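User: We ran a pulldown and think these components assemble together. Before we commit to crystallization trials, I'd like a predicted model of the whole complex to look at. Sequences follow.
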Amino acid sequence: MTVDLAMTNRFLERAEAKGLVDVAVSTMDSPVGTLLLMATPRGLVRIAFDYENRDEVLGEVATRLSPRILDAPRRLDAVRRQLDRYFAGTLRDFNVPIDWSLTGDFARKVLRRTARIPYGSVESYADVAVGVGTPRGYRAVGNALGSNPIPVVVPCHRVVRTGGAIGGYGGGLPRKRWLLALEKG
Amino acid sequence: MSTVKATALPPFQFVFEKHANAVLTFLNGAVGVSEAEDCFQETMLSALRAYPRLGDGSNLRGWLLTIARRKAIDAHRARARRPSPVADPDPGAVVDTHAEPDDGLWDQVRGLPSKQRKAVVLRFAGDKSYPEIAAVMSTTQDSARQSVHEGLKKLRRELR
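Assistant: Here's a predicted model for the assembly, 345 residues in total across the polymer chains.
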């Protein structure tokens, strides 16, 4: 006896309607690979590139936030639409609520600051370190950017080395190059 | 989100993917195909609601089947309270060509005493091992085995 797709969807819809989904999960195709998207009722909480293992990402979020994690694509519709337009080059600024619960205080400060770097421009790790009030902490800034739980939407790819070298990227340098090239138009 | 705290429970999505079929199979046997989906939905919603407070995630299948069993009992009670609007139809008058070949047998199973019925359904519709049956029914393995044995003996007598 098997549970079919219609039955599964009815369950997911009722669970969402009753407010029982603490973390909604969905995926989307993109030019930088399949993206795993996760949102709490507060906002977008996690984006994972496909080099990360889906089961591990879900398991980690279950442990850190709540195990009531379910596929609930509708909650992520707005995010998915904006990402589609971003990848098509027609959207420059994301306007989605962010849930920062997966980041510590310092990382949050760094990432909020990073989110203000305009589309198409870059800043150095040292610039960001000065911006968050720790001019000598550019290494800690690098770590905070490397742990960005919401890449692309929080544009840590816009931070490069002083002098213009590309620096590092949690999602791998080819993705960083692709995103920077997209924004140069 | 109401509570944000660390827990080792797996994402409910995985629990659903892994055990949904077993829950539905159990309910098909326990309440019949026509009521199984309602009971299934209620079982899964109750489970999801209670999930973050579940202390021990080591027997999630047994936990889900325990909830399913309670929903099945509720469904039986609700059915018993419903008045039947007309006299029972003459079973010979309607030939249901879509009936599952097992229907007669499952009707007999539904007529078994409660303990035997649950044990037989868990064993043969839920495909559970005796340790699992014992866990779901909060009893010993010997007693679970005994209930299945007695149930089968009764069925054999009735079907003869």
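The longest helix of chain A spans residues 5-17. That may be worth checking against your pulldown data before setting up trials.

User: Thanks, that helps.
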